[in-house]
Amino acid sequence: xxxxxxxxxxxxxxxxxxxxxxxxxxxxxxxxxxxxxxxxxxxxxxxxxxxxxxxxxxxxxxxxxxxxxxxxxxxxxxxxxxxxxxxxxxxxxxxxxxxxxxxxxxxxxxxxxxxxxxxxxxxxxxxxxxxxxxxxxxxxxxxxxxxxxxxxxxxxxxxxxxxxxxxxxxxxxxxxxxxxxxxxxxxxxxxxxxxxxxxxxxxxxxxxxxxxxxxxxxxxxxxxxxxxxxxxxxxxxxxxxxxxxxxxxxxxxxxxxxxxxxx
Length: 263
Hints:
Elements: H1 3-7, E1 10-14, H2 19-30, E2 34-39, H3 42-53, E3 59-63, H4 71-82, E4 86-91, H5 106-134, E5 137-142, H6 155-174, E6 180-186, E7 190-191, H7 194-198, E8 211-212, H8 213-225, E9 230-232, H9 235-246, H10 249-260
Parallel strand pairs: 1-2, 1-4, 2-3, 4-5, 5-6, 6-9, 7-8
Helix pairs in contact: 2-8, 4-5, 5-6
């Protein structure tokens, strides 16, 4: 795709106000794509949009709380009203929580399922027909190495990422001959605000070496542009995913619980 064509091609990034989403937006802008940035934090989105516009690309900001079940159809309706067709969809928005499931705030757990699973699925379903009609498109779903194993003390988060991983790989197979690629990106611990929001600052997870959000975004972006089905970021994370398949499940479960426990 030539640069001039890219300026007519819109990429939508959810969770674009910080971290991996912000860095993916920067990579897309550097390659000349027009952008739709989506998140709850309007001030942060506008700051990022203003910086990206300096490179000469078109940037639209849409403020949405993706924990609202109506957010996906409302977002697509707004895109339609603006005459924007999406060629690249990056489902990056997501969050986690920490602690025993029985003690968890129910509304927060349901909001996590809505953002990490339901809205991701709904938005993909609503935008996919347009991609199929045009015969081109790229979808990136940001999963996690957590999707390869169960996660005691972060049970819903790990399970939600297992869904994203399975959904992405299945969709990749379905769309294989339709000119559309689907890439599941699976980072390990990453230097973002995730740990503060998930309240895991005192867990052993924070002692693990973290990759920068810029590096994760670059690895994922390159994988998406190459049309790869799966991208696990970093050698250690790739080894971990192999180990989860080879080791006894009980041992994997025990190890995950230990890592998620308090220091």
